[in-house]
Structures are given as C-alpha cells and as structure tokens.
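Now for one record.
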Amino acid sequence: MLLEINLKKFKETPEGFKKIVGLVGLTAAIIITFIILNIFFGESDKTVVSDKIVESDKTTESDKTLISSLPKGRLNFFESSDGRQLSPSEYEVVCKNTKIVTQRSIMGANITNYKAQQLYFDNGNKIDKYSVKWDSSLKKCFAEYTIRAIEGTSGTILVSGEAKGFLKTSIDTRVYFIKNF
C-alpha cells in the first residue's frame, strides 16, 4: 500500500523534477563508485609517488637557489672575457635545468655542418626537436637538435655536440654555445 502511494506521487510529479532527481542520483553514484575504487586501488600508489615528488623538490630547490645566485648573461664552461666561468658543479646543475637551445647556438653549430646549415635555411630556420642532457659518465653536457625539411624532401639531420656555454635570462637558462667539431 505504501509503495503504491509513493509510485502514484512519483508519477504525478513534474517531468523536470524527475530529470533533476535522476541527474543528482547518477552524479552521486559516480562519485561513490570512484571513492570505492580509490579506497581499494588508489592509496598505495599515491604514497610512492608523493615520496618521489618530495625528493625531487628537495633537489630542485637547491638547484634553483644555485641558479638564481648566478648572474644574468653568459655562463661559460671555458675561460672567456665575456661572461662568467662555471665551476664543474655549477656546470652540471645548469645543464640539468636547461631545456632550451637558442638560435645563436644552432647557427654556430651549423657553421661546421654545411648540410645542416643549408637545410636549416631552406626550411625557414625551424627546428623539429631539441634536447639538453647531462652525461654523468663523461661529466659533460650535450645538446642536440633535429632539422627536418618542411616540404619537398624527407631529409632530417641530427646535430649534436657538447654544450659549453649558457645564457641566463630572468626566466630560465638556455644553451648558448654548442661545440660540435
């Protein structure tokens, strides 16, 4: 009897109200499902990831303070009248925190590679990919970039070399000089 009365009242309710009740019920079911899944599957993975994040934050904070203490402008791993000469430890930290290769370093490295220089000019001075990596066994910083033809040919050239100079801006550090000969 009670069930029949409730069904009759539900049938008499407006259609808009029924849709809102259905939407709220569906939303609650989805949230409860994800809470249950998180309880059974999610917690153990988060602790491992959060520990790794805490460790990496500690190292990057010390790296950031070292980089922020360096003067703006050129930072070299060789003696020069222009710029500051980096110590080996500063060189490693700057290399590990550098992600950008400047156009000047690309142009300088292309001088020794005629095919790369020609392809670079032919494709409108565009670089496909670039990366900066620290080689811990050699204790050197290496920068590389790929020049790819835009149209006409499918040729690509990978230019790589030792990053010997950096440019510190107010935002980041960039590779300024690549020795590839």
In short: The chain has two domains: 2-66, 72-179. The chain has five helices and seven strands. The radius of gyration is 29 Å.
